[in-house]
From TrEMBL:
Protein name: Signal peptidase I
Mode of membrane association: Single-pass type II membrane protein
Enzyme class: hydrolase
Top-level taxon of the source organism: Bacteria
Source organism of this protein record: Duncaniella dubosii
GO biological process terms held by the UniProt record: signal peptide processing
GN (gene name): lepB
Domain Peptidase S26 intervals: 83-270, 424-456
């Protein structure tokens, strides 16, 4: 070592000691507390390489070599004012990032698929510790948006780096009947301009080439990482290893009929003897504006309506007929109404694009299955039908992107296999508004790495059909339990 090098080392050592000694006891106490929390967090995380960031904490609290607060010594008051706001915002975003990633976050109910258990306009607190926090697979992302910055419509995350799926220890596992927030499995590929229906449904409707060749209609087709896919909320009705079947709207698990949630809804027709439904009538039943449908009737419909038992007046006119999703309580109220002439459950349509594509023509959303739900560690003999049902699971969800089925065998990495052993658990999710929910019946199983958390409380609830000053805030739902009607 040269003389200059020795002098530089001595100078650095002296400066380091000076900086360390310059700190008050209270700052050392704060640093010790922060370090303790950091070490506990790293132990919980189970990724010890993260300890390297402790040295950054040491510099922030003790030595101060990185000039993070340079602006405090600026002589320009404008710089000090602006940077004080920037400093506060950065710290707030870091805090929000950690809270949203490892503890929980708010979530808005955007659709009616879980009505009346959860309502459109409910803002939920989702507990990510319930099933164990998922270590972010896309670590570099803006914490306040899921995947797209509003207005500028650009990605709110960087696709690299990508971390492997890992879930920390939580308070329990997903149970049958839990309402669960998860990333939309079919949201891995997205046509940016048309996201409802999803990309795979669009492919069934129009063909893949039509979507890629018409960006003016469908927009750019992009891939989204697992944790940046849209958040969905449904009820878990099927657990790993279960066999699920639906008969006339009743769910059977392993051959046993499951109890329906109290607020389960199915679509019904109902007819008035005279007059029509007023807004007060709709409000008394608790049916939202979007679910109030009067059925148009033409002369050609009259014979069919008469054969179904609907009232037809002697002059050929037909009293008002309505269609709405109804809960058992609503059905009871209508049955006790002397002005109701007819109440009939709406039959499920045939030919809907259900999952999987090979289902019999007899399958509908109300008469569905039977399907086996994949379970971690379980092996399945792989034949043509099994591949048609579970091929997407094996190829896309389990990471075997080169998997093929040919010559009567499954090939992974070019090696033939008679069976496949699943790496993850899977779940079957459905909405309580059974006839108005796009759920696992349409797009399949939810892999465990897509599970986000469990809703715990309704933070606040807004009724979009009313103004804020006229019942727009549902005060009776604030801090109400969100995970209701468990089996």
């Amino acid at each position: 070592m040269t003389t200059d090098s020795r002098q530089e080392a001595k100078s650095f050592t002296d400066d380091f000691i000076r900086r360390v000694k310059a700190n008050r006891k209270t700052r050392w106490i704060r640093f010790a507390l922060v370090s303790l929390l950091f070490f506990l967090w790293v132990a919980w995380l189970g990724s010890w390489w993260v300890l390297i960031f402790w040295f950054l904490l040491f510099d922030i609290y003790i030595t101060g070599y990185i000039p993070l607060t340079w602006w405090k010594s600026s002589k320009n008051p404008v710089v000090r004012g602006i940077m004080s706001w920037v400093d506060a915002i950065v710290y707030a975003l870091i805090l929000v990032y950690f809270v949203f990633t490892f503890i929980g976050q708010n979530y808005q109910i955007p659709s009616s698929s879980l009505e009346k258990s959860l309502l459109v306009g409910d803002y939920l607190w989702v507990n990510k510790m319930a099933y164990g926090q998922r270590v972010p697979m896309t670590p570099v992302h803006f914490p306040l948006v899921q995947n797209t910055f509003p207005i500028i419509n650009t990605k709110s995350y960087l696709e690299s780096p990508q971390w492997e799926y890992k879930r920390l220890k939580g308070f329990g596992n997903v149970k049958r009947g839990d309402i669960v927030v998860f990333n939309f499995p079919a949201g891995d590929t997205v046509a940016v301009k048309v996201q409802n229906p999803d990309y795979y449904t669009l492919v069934k409707m129009y063909g893949r080439d039509a979507i890629y060749n018409n960006p003016q209609t469908f927009g750019e087709v992009i891939y989204r990482p697992v944790d940046r896919r849209e958040n969905y909320v449904k009820r878990c009705v099927g657990l790993p290893g279960d066999r699920i079947k639906i008969v006339d709207g009743v769910i059977y698990i392993n051959g046993e009929a499951m109890k329906q949630p109290e607020n389960v809804q199915f679509n019904y027709y109902f007819q008035m003897k005279k007059g029509s439904m007023s807004e007060a009538d709709w409000n008394e039943l608790g049916i939202s504006v979007d679910d109030r449908h009067e059925v148009p009737v033409t002369a050609e419909d009259v014979p069919g309506l008469r054969s179904l038992g609907f009232t037809v007046n002697p002059d050929g006119s037909v009293p008002s007929i309505y269609a709405s999703p109804l809960t058992p309580a609503m059905i009871e109220a209508l049955n006790s109404n002397p002005n109701i002439a007819k109440l009939m459950k709406m039959p499920a349509p045939k030919g809907e694009p259900l999952y999987p594509d090979i289902v019999s023509e007899d399958w509908t959303r109300a008469d569905y299955g039977e399907l086996w739900i994949p379970k971690k560690g379980a092996s399945l003999k792989m034949g043509p039908r099994a591949w048609q049902i579970y091929g997407r699971v094996i190829r896309d969800y389990e990471g075997n992107h080169d998997a093929q089925f040919r010559d009567g065998k499954l090939y992974i990495n070019g090696q033939p296999q008679d069976s496949y052993t699943f790496k993850m658990d899977y779940y079957f999710m459905m909405g309580d508004n059974r006839d108005n929910s796009l759920d696992s019946r349409y797009w399949g199983f939810v892999p465990e790495d897509h599970i986000v958390g469990r809703p715990e409380r309704v933070l606040i609830s807004f009724d979009k059909d009313k103004s804020i000053l006229n019942g727009g805030i549902r005060w009776n739902r604030i801090f109400r339990e969100a995970n209701v009607d468990k089996y």
